[in-house]
Amino acid sequence: MADEKKPQEPRVGVYICHCGTNIAGSIDIKELQDYARTIADVVVSDEYQYVCSTPGQTMIEEAIKEHKLTGLVVAACSPRLHEPTFRRASQEGGMNQFRFEMANIREQNSWVHMHDREGATEKAKDAVRMAVAKARLLEDLHPKSVPVEHAAMVVGAGVGGIQAALDLASSGIKTYLVEKSPTIGGRMSQLDKTFPTLDCSQCILTPKMVDVLRHPNIELMSYTEVESVEGYIGNFDVTLRKKANGVLTMEQAEARGIVGGGCNGCGDCEPVCPVIKPNPFELGMAPRKAIYIYHPQVVPLLYTIDFDSCVKCGLCEEVCGDKKAIDLEMQDELVTVKVGTAILAVGYEVFPIEKKTEWGYKRYDNVVSSLEFERLICASGPTGGKMIRPSDGEVPKKIGFVLCAGSRDNTGIGKPYCSRFCCMYSLKHAHQLYEKIPGAQSYIFYMDIRSFGKMYEEFYYRIQDEGAKFIRGRVAKIEEDPITKNLYVTTEDTLLGQPVNIELDMVVLASAVVPTEETNSVRKLFGVSQSMDGWLLEAHPKLNPCGTTTAGVFLAGVCQGPKDIPDTVAQAEGAAAAASIPIHVGEVELEPYFAMCIEEKCAGCGMCLDLCPYAALDLGKSEDGRTVMKVTEAKCKGCGTCGGFCPGGAIWMQHFTTPQIVAQIDAFLLGGEQ
Amino acid sequence: MSDEWKPKILGIICNWCSYAGADLAGSARTQYPPGIRTVRVMCTGRVDTLFIMKAFASGADGVLVSGCHFGDCHYLEGNYKAAKRMFLMKSVLKNMGIEDKRFRMTFVSASEGAKWAKVVEDVVNTVTELGPSPLKELEQ
Predict the structure, then answer these.
(1) How far is A166 from chain B (nearest CA, A)?
(2) For residue A232, what is the nearest residue in chain B, using CA coordinates?
(3) B residues 19..78 contacting A (CB < 8 A)
């Protein structure tokens, strides 16, 4: 116990980082260093250009040995950036790593008070004094090692999730691939072709989908949602809701003793089903039955009953015959799996462009979204690949493409960000139009063309050469001729400075992308933050783009922010590599910020028990037979909610103890005297 | 200029949301007045009302506690529990003769650097308007 330790005379070293001019430009380093020397128990104070550099760290390591330091303060950037660096250096210098404390004089000082040198220097002095006050009281702590479950989970089976699952599984890790839809493939499976190579989307994706199904280390859980998540890195218990699909797989049928039964995807059930619903895979442009598959290439090839619309007439059951694959009474099933790490790849949704009323989407038949265009031009789409316009089935000759439809929009209706892949797919659409309809003319209304990727700019030139007309200007309004259903597009050609009014047969809106509805619930279950726009927040935008602030949870694909297929796949591979590291290492160290009970002070009132969100606390007997609080360290995550309320001050929150925090407060407010 | 009275404001902020938000304000070089000194805790649930009383007793002119938005707590519900305590704190301060405006709890997420800057500016302005803490006058 902490207070049993023999108190050591505190000897603190203070190291101040210039960070080039990042800190030194706004804070008087010399003054700060001189000041640090005057603080009680500071035995050495030095400064350096970049303390995080190798010479900087060596300087610290040597000082710890030379001055027999019991505490170390580095005044530099945020502990969220370099705390691990200096902890390592502390350890190398022979001091316990938890005796290190950082004073954040960059992110929360020099950078936010760039033009107030006096104010920033005074604030830095206080920050250093507060850090020393804490460092004087820091204790040796020892991180706890916990074993890591040799399994991972990927949530979302679009191309990102598929890639991540294949990589994890191929490195020998048991991988649960969880998908809310009955089939995998995500948005990419809805696309006709991909830019700039013009590969057929399904042709390159389907083999990967089949690989997922066949991989011995992947357990594909389609039509399944995450219900709850418990635990921490290495030991997540994830409860999944396997939604009732009303259809037995061959394995399920066998388990029920139905010999040779189960769904083999024959499709006999579909024609007899009397219920007709719009098919969401075809964006409502084609019908599906209550028992359905979205399209012929679905993986797994297994029919699904939509119980919301099923009338339970039993016709499908009848026609299924001896296979007995249909169970109209099937219920949702909850299963819990244990995984070491998880990757979220929950994708995106299309912005509801009808909100931009000036373009008439959903009011005018011939204004469609880009995703609808993909389905209309796709050989396996609702029109069998025949490009027709919705109002009359005629082949459109003049088509307009409106870029930034809801993106880069600061009106408050759309989204301020760039959706990143709309320029490129709109160029691709123009090309597809020429391929399908000889003599067709496309007009691309753009603000900028952002063709930033490998072979992208070249693709842009190609489309220009093919004859697409580019008009720079945001479309002000679209009006419909009520008789012909043709569209009048009004804009300004900002390069010519002239108004433009063109009559077109059809308009395609390159809609912005937004997080899916489920993104918010999934991120809360896994404890991941979101950015201003609702995308999942990476741990660091530059240095940790696949990680999150929740240890063991990683991100892949558009759920982290708009990106195209190559970027999604690349990030998925990165996330898979990152998620596999703790699993292959086999154990992780947890920060030892556990609550401890000072039994002499504990009255056994039990108020802390209800405060603990992790059920880590219990009442038990002390050695002298009194009722006292007991902590289960494996369950405690160190939030300190119990310690914040203990009426007897009996809870010792390691590394954030009451004496340490009070010392910081007093160091700030009472100056040097304590 | 240094003779001019400047408020002493203590901020106690959680590691996962508000501290990260305050860091983001820095990375984005959003400027705000240097009137606040922060103590980092893992969760606002850790904030004992004692810390706030101690701060005022030691001469703080204002205290800000800032954590994650409701529903976003890294520890599930620490911020709810903190918020409950903070409501209590406000009435205690009032009864002690300390204007309750001197104490605030806010919710700033890791992506709200600009909000952090605005919160600090607001708090500094509010406390500056109120003047030195009444406890200081009592001492003298």
Answers:
(1) 30
(2) B75
(3) 19-20, 22-27, 29-34, 37-43, 45-48, 50-51, 54-55, 58-60, 68, 71-72, 74-78
Give phi and psi for A240, each to the nearest 5: -115, 145
Whether the Cβ atoms of residue A638 and residue A593 lie closer than 8 Å to each other: yes
Residues 6+ apart with CB under 8 A from A653: A593, A595, A596, A638, A640, A643, B46
- A550 contacts A342 by C-beta, under 8 angstroms: no
pLDDT in tens, A495-533: 999 999 999 999 999 999 999 999 999 999 998 989 989
Which residues make Cβ contacts (< 8 Å) with residue A531, sequence separation at least 6? A537, A561, B111
Q: Maximum distance among all alpha carbons in chain A?
A: 94
Best of B1, B13, B29, B48 to mutate (most A CBs within 10 Å, chain A): B48
- Proportion of chain B above pLDDT 90, given as a percent: 84
Averaged confidence pLDDT in chain A: 95
pLDDT of residue A674: 38
Q: Please state the pTM of the whole predicted model.
A: 0.90
Inter-axis angle of helices A117-137 and A29-37, nearest 10: 30
Helices (H), chain B: 18-27, 49-57, 78-95, 113-130, 134-139
Task: Please report, for residues A162, A178, A453, A496, B5, the alpha-carbon distance to residue A220 in angstroms, rounded to integers and kept in the order given.
Answer: 10, 6, 33, 55, 65
B41, A656: Cβ pair inside 8 Å? yes
